[in-house]
Amino acid sequence: MLMRQATQTGFWIALLGLGLTSVAADPLNIAKMGSMEAGGRFIECQTVDGGDPNNPRQTPGRLIIDQVYASYLYPQDQRYPYPILFNPGGGHTARFYDTTPDGREGWLTLFARAGFPTYGVDRVNTGRSGSDICKLNAVRLGRAPIADIPIANRYSAEAAWVNFRWGRTYGTPYSNTQFPIEAADAYYPQTLTTYRDPSETKKSVAAFTALIDKIDAPGVIIQTWSSSGLLGYLTAADRPNKVKGILAVESSTTAFDDIPKDKKAILAKIPIIIMIGDRAPDRVEASRKFQKEMAAMGGDVTVDVLPEAGIYGNGHTLAAEKNNRQTMYRLIAWMEGHVFNIDKKAGQPTSPDEPPPPIIPNSTSGSGAARKAN
């Protein structure tokens, strides 16, 4: 009776404050899980060993490169038809979505608990996707110029602290930061080297597209973070009939200008939400400019600036932060209104502080499409 009398806002406060605790404590029943590769190409590599080119155990020959790796998890209680493909930002792998630095569940399992199949994707030349070592070894052995070494970088602890907006200066956190600062030392080992040559974008989009083609589902939802935002937009434009929505977390400010105009016209058919944390006016400005551009084409782009909704302290690392369940349910609520509700008018995004609609148990693509956001 109390719940029926509660306001919608009160309902969601109760759900976020109490209900999720019990959900996280329950066993996660898995229907199937595994991993897969997609895309890639064979090359002839004569420098398979950078230390000893005559190593009898390392015979020169064909190697496959430029593939993408993905692990997947399908919950027993699958309530939504479209898997979510989680893409990390630069300097990270899908491990970022697995377990938070302070040991809480990450989005890969939290979204699975909510009824979504989830895929954790390692982009080309990153993490479990492997990397192309032929040119590196060729340079090492004096068979190629130094310029053939790929451009690569990795976040230092000092750079991560400031650029990910945990604090203004390294070692001093913002008083309201949502990042679990006490676990920062457990976070740093997650970061890794990322190839940054411009050609990496084309390679990653090709492999990501191949992954989408390989997944047996009526459609997919792309989740991106930071620099993978551009990869997600370009991939969606290549597979508009398969990509049903984009969850873009903290897209890079330059991403939107790097999308060709003809691809933006295609993206106008795909609902997009861009979620942004605190202290990122440049991201807000770039995202809203993109939102207006897409609205003029009839597109449906929501720019969800969390502090404008009264949610404070989030930095760049949203999926790992203390309120990752709250932001997850915010994304699910958006999907209920924009992806699973065909009656939602394009170009009319919900207000950032609008309470999300309740998630109805055992929803399907059919029943979900018939529901309207309150």
Could you characterize what this model shows?
The protein has 374 residues and is an alpha/beta fold. It has a single domain (2-36, 69-129, 165-370), classed as Rossmann fold (3-Layer(aba) Sandwich), CATH 3.40.50. Helices cover 32% and strands 18% of the residues. The protein contains twelve helices and ten strands. An eight-stranded mixed β-sheet has the order 1-2-4-3-7-8-9-10, sandwiched between helices. The chain has a two-stranded antiparallel ribbon with strand order 5-6. Helix 7 packs across helix 8 (228-238) and helix 8 (228-238) crosses helix 9 (261-267). The radius of gyration is 21 Å and the shape is globular.
- CATH topology name, in short, is Rossmann fold
Cα-to-Cα separation, first versus last residue: 20 Å
Strand content: 15-25%
Poorly predicted residue ranges: 1-24, 343-374
Helix count, DSSP H or I runs of 4 or more residues:
12
CATH class: Alpha Beta
- Average predicted local confidence, pLDDT: 87
